[in-house]
Amino acid sequence: MVHQSIYWIVLAGTVTVTACSDSMAPGVPELAIRDTTLLVDETLIVPVTAVDAHGREITNPSITFTSSVPSVLSIIGPGTVSALAPGTSVLTATMDQLVAQATITVAPHFTHLAVGAGHACGITGRGELYCWGTSIRGELGPAPGIQNCREVAGAPCSTVPIRSSSLRPVEIVAGDMHTCALAADGTAYCWGANFYGEAGTGTMSDVPVPTPVAGGHSFAHLVAGRMHTCGITTSTCSPRSVS
Questions:
Q1: DSSP letters for 210-236
Q2: What are the φ/ψ torsions at residue 9 (nearest 5 degrees)?
Q3: Residue ranges, the chain, pLDDT below 50
């Protein structure tokens, strides 16, 4: 039985009904998920708040999930998502007629970083190369998504990590306005400013794309200064006796 409360006010012999309320009327069922950030290759069991019309938590609710950008965020199981690539995706949860949404941001998981004067680059756990900051002389590489930031930074730039190129290096170094990376086969690549030959290409022209360092050397390690680069090769010399 539903209990109703009726309130009366008597004014000069006149009876007036001022309110009629149902103190035990049911509310509205609720479903909620929240925004979050994941790293590439990270998985998450999505935390969901589901309550019935009386405010009681629903255990093991039957919820369907969808991702607006499956290439960024993939649904891999009941209530479980996997972060595949940097970007954002809207995660939608549906329970009966209830719908809840959250924005999931996927950020790169970096294993190596290099910082220049106005830019930075990093290698992710997948071996992908990302750069951000200014690109005055092409130090971000031929990355799509570079913005026109001249009014603010005086040069093109990117305020978020963007895929610098298809190069998949094992080591990354950065100078003032140039960047160099070491491939798994020992080949050194450089790009960006080349005022004094710091890109090692045999010229003093800026290098817009990752270009192999001249000389055919196989490097084990690289280091970059403001406007120069050095490397240690993999070749060794055997000692010999002199009679």
A1: EEEPTT---EEEEEE-SS-EEEEES--
A2: -130, 130
A3: 1-23, 238, 242-243
**pTM, two decimal places:** 0.69
Range(s) of the chain covered by CATH 2.60.40.1080: 30-107
The DSSP element (H or E) to which 173 belongs, if any, is strand 171-174
Give the containing element (helix H, strand E) for 105: strand 98-107
Residues 177-234 pLDDT 10s: 999 999 999 999 999 999 999 999 999 999 999 999 999 999 999 999 999 999 999 9
CATH topology of domain 30-107: Immunoglobulin-like (2.60.40)
> Distance between terminal CA atoms of the chain?
113
> How many angstroms separate the CA atoms of 94 and 99, rounded?
5
Structure tokens at 136: 């005055």
Three-state DSSP state, 150? helix
Residues 48-77 as b or e (16 or more Cβ within 10 Å = b): bebbeeeeeebeebebebebebeebbbbee
Contact 86, 72 (CB under 8 A): yes
Q: What does the buried/exposed string (b/e) look like for 124-133 if buried means 16 or more CB atoms within 10 Å of the residue's CB?
A: beeebbbbbb
